[in-house]
From TrEMBL, chain A:
Gene3D superfamilies: 1.20.1050.10, Glutaredoxin. The keyword Transferase applies. It is found in: Cytoplasm. It comes from Poecilia reticulata. It comes from the Eukaryota. Signal peptide: none annotated. This is glutathione transferase.
UniProtKB/TrEMBL annotation, chain B:
Belongs to the GST superfamily. Theta family. This is glutathione transferase. It is found in: Cytoplasm. It catalyses: RX + glutathione = an S-substituted glutathione + a halide anion + H(+).
Amino acid sequence: MNWTKVDFQMFVGVDGIGLFKYRCSQSVQPAPIGCTDWPILPGLPPGSLVSSCLVSCWSAMFVWVPGEHFGDEFGKISKIRKVPALRDGDFCLAESVAIMLYLAEKFQTPDRWFPADLRLRSRVNEYLSWQHSAIRMHGSKMLWMRLMIPKIMGIDVPKEKMDGALEDLNASLTLIEENFLQDRPFIVGDQMSLADLVAIVEIMQPLGAGLDVFEGRPKLSAWRDRVQASIGKDLFDEAHRGILGAQDSMKQLDPSKLELFKPKILRLFF
Amino acid sequence: MATGREVQLYLDLLSQPCRAVHILLTRTKIPHRVHSVALRKGEHRTSEFSKLNPMQKVPVLVDGGFILRESDAILKYLATTFDIPEHWYPWQPERRARVDEYTAWHHSNTRPHAAKVFMLEVLLPAQLGVPVDRRRLDRALSDLDVTLERLESMFLRRQPFLCGDDITVADLLAVCELMQPLGSGRDILKDRPQLRRWRSRVQSAVGESFDDAHAVLFAVRDRHRARVIKGQGQI
């Protein structure tokens, strides 16, 4: 397998509840977690290293204090002012899905990530398109409702809202099992692709709030195990250490530093 | 283009993503047959349609034995499978990435915010027989305004089209969403000359395919207008 050593910068940030670190290695690695809409939490140590999605190279990770991604400098890189963002020479790109597809195409990564066969490729695109307004939304919502909102607003989300959100999440998970996976080992076929990568990081989100989405879902659990094996257990575990430690991280945070989230929470959830 | 190959498209032209796919097919003359799925009558929830799409949504494309859902996947499949002008979904990685960047952003921004306005002003009142919820509508309009501002400043900027000098599938997805509130007679681009000029460029680029796709929406607008006038006692 020939790896192309390239030098580009990847800007990743911190999901609302933890620090995601990536190690560079010779194996294929998870892509940066999808775009986060939320400012970065303060008080976290500077980042060290990040790997690219699919190529063997080193890049720098920047961790911002809140508001830095609203500055002009970052605005030149990511016009939508969110993370992740990519800069490759003069070319700047936002949106994690677009970034992953660009990396796969430009750096000629192993075919299984984003197959050249147009029908298999379309299956990946089909999943990547569907997931935005489904599992991504529902998984994140659960994290916010169970963990972030009680911490930031000091109240519990009303039961009927929580039940509704759980129902939506379950519907998405069922669709993943019955429509996208069916009897296949991975979403598109026998090998892991970008669809599985994007899926796993979103499905893991609710675990950050103590909700085990794999319980009672043997098909999903078996798929998760295959994804973990395909990525490599060490790297998978390291990438998810932040989200899985979210509840502990939240306990240590000073709620007053999270004031800037309040208006957005009120608008989106109440 | 293979002789005799005709793709099947399951759609309802009231649906924004369906219109985007329909416009591409008719403009580029890809052989196709339309199968109507009447959302108003719940035809997307039948067990027969669910076999095609368990998500019970339109559009759905069937090409031989290959079934594909999700409009952005369908548009990209059509652009790369059939011999149509390259600008719709360019091959060059940086240009293609620009389209992928917009289509990803579209799902969480343009689509939900424009659709919500139509839902609150037309769909819910028509289906449930209730008056428009003004508080929710004002909030939806405010969210949409932010989206339009971002569309102008982040994507369109000084370019003729969202992703550069040429029209792409991104413009089709966006314009069809932004047309939807017209179902209640509301032109959300009324005070945005830059986006209005972009919309005109898109209309010119696709020609009569635009009005053909939007005929159903225009009919909804006319019926809505008549209902409002009747409600005001002017008939």
